[in-house]
Amino acid sequence: MSGKKGQFRTAEKPIARYLWVLIVLLLVQEVRAQTPSQSSEAAPVTEAHRKVVVSIPHRKLALVEGGKVKKVYAVAVGVQQSPTPVGKFEVKTRLVKPTYYHPGKVIPPGANNPLGTRWIGLSTKGYGIHGTNQEDSIGKAASHGCIRMRRTDLEELFAEIQVGDQVEIQTEPDAEVAGIFGELPAAEDNSDGAAVGEWQ
Q1: Residue 144 annotated among the catalytic residues of the structure
Q2: Can you give the three-state secondary structure of the chain, one letter per residue?
Q3: 34 in Cβ contact with 143 (< 8 Å)
Q4: CA–CA distances in Å: residue 31 to residues 17, 35, 41, 139
Q5: Are 132 and 113 in contact (CB under 8 A)?
Q6: CB atoms closer than 10 angstroms to residue 17
Q7: Predicted TM-score of the model (pTM)
Q8: Which of 20, 104, 142, 161 is the residue whose CA sits 20 to 30 A from 42?
Q9: pLDDT digits (tens, 9 = 90+) for 140-198
Q10: Among 49, 58, 102, 146, which one carries the catalytic annotation?
């Protein structure tokens, strides 16, 4: 009888091993089923590359997405005494109904606010893309260095732009700028002077 028990225990060991292997395989399969697929059918993780390109001499701004120009807008840029900064920046803040702060002045949101209804703050402190309560300044060198836009244009751009998007501001047209905005306009002095330059 003891010989039969020993044979039974010996036969039990391979069965137990097979059961453990089967359980481990089932667990691995379960984990794989719960892990998101990395196949080519998976949705892309990142959005199409989006950036804003501003040409100071053209006084225009373009929204570029996935390497294609989505829309071009007329803008106002800084006057000679307080020029718009040039270079590559990032969108750092997005504000609806911003409050205007200037030494000695605080202007709440509303019709008298020189920032208009939206503020897109850049990675250089104090500079951004915003609206204006002086829409006749659009297309001119008229600001304290910021980029001004018409209210409807700004609100449209604001809906497209996210924090982290790149903003390129240029004074010299490279191939990309020339391709977006065309020939440089004839040189002319069309700034609004110091009275408007007080505002952003």
Answers
A1: no
A2: CHHHHHHHHHHHHHHHHHHHHHHHHHHHHHHHHHCCCCCCCCCCCCCCCEEEEEECCCCEEEEEECCEEEEEEECEEECCCCCCCCEEEEEEEEEECCCEEECCEEECCCCCCCCCCEEEEECCCCCEEECCCCHHHCCCEEECCCEECCHHHHHHHHHHCCCCCEEEEECCCCHHHHHHHCCCCCCCCCCCCHHHHCCC
A3: no
A4: 21, 6, 20, 59
A5: no
A6: 10
A7: 0.70
A8: 161
A9: 999 999 999 999 999 999 999 999 999 999 998 888 899 999 988 776 555 444 333 33
A10: 146
Burial category of 138 from C-beta neighbours within 10 Å (exposed 0-12, middle 13-18, buried 19 and up) = middle
Q: Could you give the CA distance from residue 194 to residue 149 in angstroms, rounded to a whole number?
A: 19
Instruction: Look up tokens 């900064």; give the residue.
Output: 85
Q: Which of 49, 58, 102, 130 is catalytic?
A: 130
Clarify whether 130 is annotated catalytic: yes
At 47, the amino acid letter reads E
pLDDT in tens, 52-64: 999 999 999 999 9
Domain at 50-197: CATH code: 2.40.440.10
Query: Which residue, among 87, 92, 89, has the nearest Cα to 51 in the 3D structure?
Result: 89
CA-angle at 187, arms to 186 and 193, nearest 5°: 135
In the chain, the largest separation of any two C-alpha atoms, in whole Å, equals: 113
